[in-house]
């Protein structure tokens, strides 16, 4: 039986606004982040989208976002947390490295600074989301995570060329919709707060 996963990025935070690297570290939602999360909640209701289970990263920006989208009880999971950028946490985004030309991401760069590699983040996200979706009573699931983690999860199922071709944007509060069956996720669509 096919199931549905809605994987959402948290709302805009102070560090997003200040263009600071934000992985393991946290910062509060801005007024825009709050408004966008509330709009996503209204969009789900307007389209009759309901969830039998909801999950959040353990980071407050994700759980705060989820609580603005729905008042359902939820579980916080470490497996949904953002990419750990090690010593780069809280620094300017201008310090981010160039993409690895083969992997089309930051690759192993942050390992040398106490962070995670792209493939570690991807494996963690895939394992966590498969575990969630394999539960028999999980048919329609919302999970709130983070931009880097969501991107690496999507990269497991779509090539970088396909992501560019479909113009998938990882803006704050973007929602990636996937169908799930037999351990495999299929990307369907990306929704953003401004989408009606």
Automatic annotation (TrEMBL):
Pfam families: His_Phos_1. Transmembrane segments: none annotated. InterPro entries: His_Pase_superF_clade-1, His_PPase_superfam, PG/BPGM_mutase_AS, PGM_Phosphatase. This is Histidine phosphatase family protein.
């Amino acid at each position: 039986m096919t199931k549905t996963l809605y994987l959402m990025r948290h709302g805009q935070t102070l560090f997003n606004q200040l263009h600071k690297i934000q992985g393991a570290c946290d910062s509060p939602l801005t007024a825009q982040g709050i408004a966008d999360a509330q709009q996503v909640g209204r969009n789900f209701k307007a389209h009759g989208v309901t969830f039998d289970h909801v999950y959040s990263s353990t980071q407050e920006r994700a759980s705060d976002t989820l609580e603005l989208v729905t008042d359902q009880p939820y579980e916080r999971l470490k497996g949904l947390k953002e990419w750990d950028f090690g010593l780069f946490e809280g620094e300017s985004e201008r310090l981010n490295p160039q993409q690895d030309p083969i992997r089309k991401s930051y690759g192993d760069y942050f390992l040398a600074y106490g962070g995670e590699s792209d493939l570690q983040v991807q494996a963690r996200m895939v394992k966590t989301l498969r575990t969630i979706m394999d539960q028999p009573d999980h048919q329609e699931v919302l999970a709130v995570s983070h931009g880097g983690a969501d991107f690496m999860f999507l990269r497991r199922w779509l090539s970088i060329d396909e992501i560019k071709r479909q113009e998938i944007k990882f803006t704050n509060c973007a929602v990636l919709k996937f169908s799930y069956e037999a351990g495999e996720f299929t990307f369907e669509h990306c929704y953003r707060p401004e989408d009606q």
